[in-house]
Specification:
The protein has 331 residues and is mainly alpha-helical. It has helices at residues 17-21, 31-40, 53-69, 83-96, 101-108, 110-137, 142-165, 171-175, 183-199, 201-204, 212-230, 232-267, 274-277. The chain contains 13 helices and no strands.
Length: 331
């Protein structure tokens, strides 16, 4: 995997309305009250992000080897998450599900401890990978520049076509600069039209609203777009690397969190309160119809994770160990 591509400051995580709907505590309101208690219990302070960016970077570095080794079948390339919300929920669940640590370890063995101990790092790594990708996307943006050069093309082409109809320019020479749809096509078309109008300026000056200043502007836009386009392969490579890291980190987060969620759903089945300890990562995202999207990327709901009266299989693998059975393999 490529090395980190630089990291922007992580914004303070504000717990939104969806957190309350998911029965999550308002972490902003309780920060001062719980700060001492959280430190004593090794609970992550989710509001210290602006002063704690190094820990997010360190978390991503700590997970890079595992991310690089992830087999393709475990990478969800269609994952759809509200990442700030999901990582906040996952980190908070380290504390809430941690209240059940004794029961979880007694039921599922060392695997439960492994998930509880590693989930905060995985969530931080996912958030950092998301921020790295967002930062890449805030770099050179070709699409807005393409729209700008297309607008200039339309202005030049409409006038050049009018001049050709009236016999002041060759129709064939104008038609050859017709198509601005691709990036390179738009660049070539604007440069070509500007050159065509300049070469024939004496013949057309009295018949066009286009001025030399407009041609200067067209050439300036083309120059900027050409330089950005020339830098495209390197920038695209960086964006692709950041996107790959983001997809792998989010896939790992969802996998680890759903393992924890399955275990809590199993031991709290009869109490029916598992959602209080491990709410869905998808509760913060709404579908196109405006309804909350609950685990739709996993293809099921809470009931799909529980098989009352027996062990629960893990992602198609062996069933949960019961009453201190053998540990789970590493995910």
């Amino acid at each position: 995997m490529p090395t980190s591509v630089g990291s922007r400051s992580i914004e303070t995580l504000n717990v939104s309305k969806e957190h309350k709907e998911a029965n999550m505590p308002n972490l902003n309101e309780t920060q001062s009250q719980n700060s001492k208690e959280n430190k004593e219990n090794n609970v992550p302070n989710l509001n210290d992000n602006q002063n704690d960016t190094s820990s997010y970077q360190a978390a991503l570095e700590a997970r890079r080897e595992r991310l690089a080794a992830m087999p393709e079948e475990r990478i969800n390339r269609r994952i759809r998450l509200d990442v700030p919300f999901a990582t906040t929920v996952a980190r908070a669940a380290v504390h809430t599900a941690g209240e059940l640590r004794g029961e979880l370890v007694a039921q599922f063995g060392p695997f439960a401890a492994q998930i509880l101990d590693g989930l905060d790092t995985t969530a931080k790594a996912a958030r950092q990978a998301w921020n790295d990708h967002e930062r890449q996307e805030e770099g050179v943006q070709l699409a807005p520049m393409h729209r700008e050069i297309v607008a200039m093309h339309e202005r030049l082409f409409v006038d050049a076509e009018s001049l050709a109809i009236r016999g002041h320019l060759s129709r064939a020479s104008v038609a050859s600069h017709r198509d601005p749809r691709s990036y390179q096509g738009a660049l070539d078309a604007v440069i070509g039209l500007a050159s065509l109008l300049r070469e024939n300026w004496r013949a057309i000056a009295a018949h066009t609203p286009i001025t030399p200043d407009v041609l200067d502007a067209a050439e300036e836009i083309a120059d900027r777009f050409g330089k950005a386009l020339a830098a495209g392969p390197q920038g695209s490579s960086g964006r692709t690397s950041a996107l790959e890291t983001r997809l792998r980190a989010l896939s790992l987060l969802v996998r680890e969190y759903e393992e924890l969620r399955r275990m809590v759903l199993f031991i709290r089945h009869f109490e029916g309160d598992a959602q209080r300890f491990v709410p869905s990562l998808y509760s913060g995202r709404r579908s196109r119809k405006g309804k909350e999207s609950e685990d739709e990327d996993l293809g099921g709901d809470d009931d799909a994770f529980v098989t009352p009266g027996g062990p629960v299989p893990v992602n198609g693998g062996p069933a949960f160990p019961i009453n201190g059975g053998p540990a789970f393999p590493n995910t």
